[in-house]
Design goal:
The protein is of the alpha+beta class and 115 residues long. Helices cover 38% and strands 17% of the residues. It contains 4 helices and 5 strands, in the order H-H-E-E-H-E-E-E-H. Helix 2 crosses helix 3 (45-59). The N and C termini lie far apart (37 Å).
Length: 115
């Protein structure tokens, strides 16, 4: 429900966080009209909270000073994501979000057979 607020506090793009959640949970999702996120299926709150914490550790928090005042920049020559801390000027590379295997669900198999 408060997806916009979370992204503003972290100073990250909404699409980046949504892509991370979708790839980790292997679900489809998009943005709702009130700034919320709609994910396919039923998901429990603690699972989403765990993914949020994992995102913060991988793409937000500085390893040197533990600050969340960082920014992500893409290096055009190497195409890597660089995480730069605004407080201690430390930098590190982050992995790109990988879109993995997409499972074909029963409804999709049935729709393909009926065509």
């Amino acid at each position: 429900m408060n997806f916009d607020v979370l992204c503003e506090q972290l100073d990250r793009e909404k699409t980046h966080l949504l892509d991370f959640i979708k790839s980790e949970m292997d679900v489809e999702g998009n943005f709702g009209s009130e700034g919320n996120v709609l994910l396919q299926g039923r998901h429990k709150g603690p699972m989403i909270n765990g993914l949020y914490k994992k995102y913060v550790e991988q793409y937000v928090r500085c390893l040197g000073c533990k600050s969340i005042k960082t920014e992500i920049q893409r290096d055009p020559s190497t195409r890597l994501l660089n995480l730069k801390c605004k407080q201690c000027d430390a930098t590190r590379t982050c992995q790109n979000i990988k879109k993995g295997f997409h499972m074909v669900r029963r409804g999709e198999r049935r729709a393909a057979r009926q065509k």
